[in-house]
Design brief:
The complex is a heterodimer of chains A (162) and B (143).
Chain A (H helix, E strand, L loop, with lengths): L7 H14 L5 H18 L15 H25 L8 E6 L5 H13 L3 E6 L5 E6 L5 H19 L2
Antiparallel strand pairs in A: 1-3, 2-3
Helix pairs in contact in A: 1-2, 4-5
Chain B lengths: L1 H28 L3 H30 L6 H27 L1 H6 L13 H5 L5 H4 L1 H4 L2 H6 L1
Helix pairs in contact in B: 1-2, 2-3
The chains are: A mainly alpha (162), B mainly alpha (143).
Chain lengths: 162, 143
């Protein structure tokens, strides 16, 4: 079973993406998508040495909703800063976010989330993978920003990823 | 009903265009590379999102078909925007010596991944990392 289906989640994702790509969610399309998913997951399994484990999928919709809302807020906020503030008056600086997450997938998700959410942009990862370098567009309190990132996103990701 | 949805669709196109415009203004107006990155990564996402919602509404009314391509475009955009932003930021950090001096320290003390090769290795190993430079050292000494 493990040899035939090395990555069951990937199969479902590939089937769904196939359905969306051909803009058709009929049974035929889903069946062909599943077939593609199984074959692609099987062919690429040597390239997935450490399979990511999702420990608990329940908080994923909640996380998704929070990030979507934050993307909306961040768009309005950055638009305001761009239009109504002089560029040089923005207090931009780098901050270091120490990570509690360990799996690469979780860190990648957190880095992507940081970039899409208000006023912050992940710029680099430390060589040991234990901290993220984050650039803030306009902040007054770096400690509060780091605390927000850790409590709002990282804590939820820790519940999702093993 | 159809007229109402067409109006909503038009409104979404205008909102999307406005946000895309603001993203481009940010790219042109902000003073340095790191700040400029914030414009296109953020303001643009909502812009594209609005245009895609408008497109879904339009196809729903005109062709009675739910456009699900748009969901996929949004997904790919959310996946690619942070990656390209991070690559630009890393390239900028790698190139700018001035910026490297102002970076905060990381928590573990191992240095940032972009600069790890430079920070850890002394100058002796530099020629092997940059083959082009290997032929140059005598000349730089004579200078």
């Amino acid at each position: 079973m493990r040899a035939l289906l090395p990555h069951p989640v990937l199969v479902v994702i590939l089937a769904l993406v196939w359905g969306l790509l051909i803009n058709d969610l009929s049974w035929g399309a889903i069946l062909f998508g599943l077939l593609l998913g199984v074959v692609i997951a099987w062919l690429t399994s040597p390239y997935w040495p450490g399979r990511s484990k999702i420990r608990n999928p329940l908080p994923i919709p909640e996380y998704f909703a929070i990030v979507l809302w934050d993307i909306f807020v961040s768009n309005v906020q950055v638009a305001y800063l761009v239009l109504f503030r002089r560029g040089a008056s923005l207090k931009s600086q780098f901050v270091t976010v120490p990570l509690s997450l360990e799996s690469p997938e979780a860190i990648a998700t957190l880095a992507g989330t940081i970039t899409m959410t208000p006023g912050t942009l992940s710029a680099d990862l430390s060589a040991d993978g234990r901290s993220l370098l984050v650039h803030c567009l306009d902040i007054t309190d770096p400690a509060a920003t780091v605390a927000t990132i850790k409590s709002r996103y990282e804590r939820r990701l820790m519940r999702i990823f093993a | 009903m159809a007229a109402f949805i067409e109006m909503a669709s038009a409104a979404f196109i205008v909102i999307g265009g406005a946000f895309l415009f603001v993203g481009s203004v940010g790219l042109a107006k902000l003073p340095d590379t790191m700040r400029r990155l914030h414009g296109p990564t953020k303001a643009t996402t909502l812009g594209i999102g609005s245009l895609l919602i408008a497109s879904m509404l339009y196809f729903l009314v005109r062709h009675q078909a739910v456009g699900i391509h748009e969901i996929l475009i949004t997904l790919f955009l959310f996946l690619t925007a942070p990656v390209s932003a991070q690559m630009i930021a890393k390239a900028h950090i790698f190139r700018s010596q001035e910026l490297q001096r102002t970076l905060p320290l990381d928590a573990g003390g191992s240095g940032w991944a972009t600069l790890a090769g430079q920070a850890n290795s002394p100058k002796a190993s530099a020629p092997s990392a940059h083959p082009v430079c290997a032929s140059n050292p005598p000349r730089s000494q004579s200078d």
